[in-house]
Amino acid sequence: MRVSKANLAAAVANEGCAGVIATVGLGNFEHAPGSEFVELNRVALQDEIRKTRQMTNGIIGANVMVALSNYESLVKTCVEEKVDIIISGAGLPLQLPAYTAETDIKLVPMVSSARSLKLICRKWMKDFNRCPDAVVIEGGKAGGHLGYTLEQLEKNNPTLDEILADVLQLMQQLPTPFPVIVAGGIFTGEEMAHYLKLGASGVQMATRFVCTEECDVDMKFKQAYLDAGPEDTTLIKSPVGMPGRVINNAFVKKINAGQTIPFKCKYRCLKSCNPAVAPYCIAEVLAKAAEGKLDEAFAFAGSNAWRCNEIVSVKSLIQKIMQEYENAERCEPAKSAQ
């Protein structure tokens, strides 16, 4: 939330990659009436897309979570502003094509299993006569909300290699196969080479880009990554109804110990959240995290956050990743990244 905005998305797009804007909670709605929630976020997303367009002629994507109560509004804003790609997960985006009809926007569901992708393809073909333009499959090492049970994550099962194999097998059964993009725990160009050799068409990387000069979060958020050790990422139960991976701190220890953080919900921003029983407001916590108020919040992070050891420009980071990839291509096939 508020981690990948115009500055980061434009910088990534300017290097020939797809720059993705995270659409959750962009509006400064903390002190606004609840009735203004949808409109404030619509305008904030509109402004963020336009800012990005002013800084790049590259490919711009938007990540819109199905779990959001204003999901339809955000998707329609993306359509109006003519983003190039909509990535949609945290639930099955079964109705996404209905909101983007007669546009050239590429639709990319994000899933954690071949089974979920099969359901989406079946629904889209039946109701809209189309398949996704690509798919992002996210493994259990990713940061933020994850499409697995806590038990699966604690056992590190299934691996991203296994999910990729299942999805590629599904592709053989589809009338029109499409690109498969892997995400979750990919940190180096060597790991990118590994997945491309296994049959993926591309990778999505997030954690490593937090520690860039252009990333939109407060420096204290980035410093949490720089200070983290290999054992400092942990899992939480989120009011979203999914586990989440975060960097451990005093606040995380409080909520994992069962403490509640009182709040008044004016917005009901998540379809699945019940404010009457939720131990804390996830939107409020993530907004504070982006502002660097980590005594009252936590930083979402992938399992490789501890490997970030410096703040660099997006340009130099992408150059480094590509050099790692080229070095790996010249060597023997990489061992499993999992």
What does the model show?
The protein is an alpha/beta fold. The chain has a domain at 6-213 and 309-329: TIM Barrel, CATH 3.20.20.70. The protein contains 13 helices and ten strands. It has helices spanning 6-13, 37-55, 71-80, 96-99, 114-128, 150-154, 160-171, 189-198, 207-210, 219-227, 250-256, 282-290, 314-329; strands at residues 18-22, 59-63, 85-88, 106-111, 135-138, 144-145, 180-183, 202-204, 233-237, 243-247. Helix 2 (37-55) runs parallel beside helix 3. It is globular, with a radius of gyration of 19 Å.
How do the strands and helices of this protein lay out in sequence?
Blueprint: H1 6-13, E1 18-22, H2 37-55, E2 59-63, H3 71-80, E3 85-88, H4 96-99, E4 106-111, H5 114-128, E5 135-138, E6 144-145, H6 150-154, H7 160-171, E7 180-183, H8 189-198, E8 202-204, H9 207-210, H10 219-227, E9 233-237, E10 243-247, H11 250-256, H12 282-290, H13 314-329
Q: Characterize the quaternary organization of these chains.
A: single chain
Helix share of residues? 25-40%
Please count the helical segments: 13
Structural class of the secondary structure composition? alpha/beta
Main sheet overview? 7 strands, parallel
Q: Could you tell me the number of beta strands?
A: 10
Give the SSE order as H and E letters. Answer: HEHEHEHEHEEHHEHEHHEEHHH
Find the CATH topology of one domain.
TIM Barrel
Question: Per the principal axes of the C-alpha atoms, what is the gross shape?
Answer: globular
What is the CATH C-level name of one domain?
Alpha Beta
